[in-house]
Amino acid sequence: MLLSLALASTWLIAAGGCRSTQDRGQVRPTRPTSTGSTQLSYRTASGRVMGITIRRPPAARGLVVLVHGGGFVGGSRADMDTWAGLLTADGYATATIDYRLGGAQNRERALERAAQDTVAALVQLRAQPTLSPLSVVLWGYSAGALTVLRAAGEFPDRVRAVVSLAGYEQPARIRRGHPAMLLFNGTADRAEPVMLAAATCRAAHAVSVDCAQVTYSGATHTISPAQMADIHRRALIWLTRISG
After folding, report:
1. Cβ contacts of 85 within 8 Å, gap of 6 or more
2. What is the architecture of the domain spanning 2-243?
3. Which DSSP state fits 45?
């Protein structure tokens, strides 16, 4: 399924400022904050403690885990706060996560490490009594989009669906049983070319995996406010269908 939209030619993610939470130490207990969110930590395979921010409405429809971009060298979970606010208002519990950065000179290694961290965060989230019954959607932008697609493919039993903003997965990695995917890409994106995302969906369809792609004519790697609103609307419709 390919939807082509002629919208603005730039993407701009409206998000809070960056902050780093890549500290070492003990896993902190869950605690409420003044903003109504909850802070949690998880431990990576290397022993590093990373942060998670959870927002949960009274009756959650599911859990959306949001993974930031930054080329595996920058960014933080705060970059996904705007998406978290929108989705929480829609009735989804959300979790924005930090993951280990660095090593961009070996992108595949950095991607695998980020995917491992995402799964480790998911394990910690599923250990929370109020979140464990909820179906899980992974949602990522740029490097985060690559990460959520990789994590979902490696651990399909833990994920219901994936929303990718400016990302793709290697066709050879798409196997039968992969969680459903919704991909949003700009046709002028030079960082993550749209043709690679199209190949992801073709590979998915070849093994009977649900994959839809929405393309924005002339759009680059960033997200405009108009596109953000359109992504939000289309993703909600798609998630409702996937959830049955």
Report:
1. 55
2. 3-Layer(aba) Sandwich (3.40)
3. T
Residues 8-29, mean pLDDT to the nearest whole number? 32
- Tally: H helices and E strands in the chain: 5, 10
**Is the separation of the CB atoms in 84 and 53 below 8 Å?**
yes
How far is the C-alpha of 69 from the C-alpha of 75, rounded, in Å? 6
What pTM did the predictor assign? 0.86
Give the residues across from 41 on adjacent strands: 51
Mean pLDDT, to the nearest integer, of 46-57? 97
Distance of CA 63 to the CA centre of its chain: 12
Question: Given pLDDT bands bounded at 50, 70 and 90, which one contains residue 22?
Answer: very low
3-state class (DSSP) for residue 70: coil
What distances in angstroms separate CA 44 from CA 41, 93, 117, 214, one per listed residue?
Answer: 10, 23, 6, 33
Distances (CA, A) of 122 to 97, 148, 169, 192, 230: 9, 11, 20, 26, 27
The mean per-residue pLDDT over the stretch 84-112 comes to 94
**Nearest CA among 90, 27, 15 for reference residue 55:** 90
Q: How far apart are CA 11 and CA 48, in angstroms?
A: 33
Domain ranges of the chain: 2-243
Residue 244 pLDDT class (50, 70, 90 cuts): low
CA distances from 20 to 16, 17, 79, 152, 162 (A): 13, 10, 11, 25, 25
